[in-house]
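Q: My labmate handed me this sequence with no annotations at all. I'd like to see what the chain might look like in three dimensions before we decide whether it's worth expressing. Could you predict it?
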Amino acid sequence: MEEHDAVTKAVEAAMVRIRRRQTRGALGKDSPVPIAVFRVLDAVADSGAATVGTLAPTLGVDQPRASRLVAQAVSSGHLERVADQHDGRRTVLRLTPAGQDVVAAARDGRRTAMAAAMSDWTDRERKEFARLLARFVDALDDRDYSKTIT
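A: Here is what I predict for the chain of 150 residues:
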C-alpha cells in the first residue's frame, strides 16, 4: 500500500471536515459557552476524577492553558473544584448542574445530527460504520498520533 494512497487521503479529508464542523457547531451559534470551555466540560464529563493535570493532555494543551480554561469554566458557573474524597490534598473537577446541562444539550445535538446523517443507512451499515470508526480511533489512540493530527 502506498504510504498516502487515495483512500488514506479521502479519510484525512473527511476527518478534517468533521473537526471543522464540530468546532463550528458543537454548541450552536447562540451558546454563551466558548468552544474551548465546552471542550473542558466535555472532557470532565468523560473522566472519573479529572484534575487540571489530567485534562491538559486530554485537551492537547499545556498545563497553564488548561488552568486558564478551568478557571474560565469555574467562573462561568459550569465547573467546580472539590476536594478529592480519597486524597484531601488533591482537587478534582466536577460539573455543576449548569455544566451538566450544557454537555447534555451538546451531546444530544451531536447525536441528533449523526442520526440524521445516517437516517437512510441500513442497520447493518450503521453498525459496521460504528465498529470501523471505533477501531480506527482506537488505532490512533494506541499509536498516539496526537502530535501529528490536529
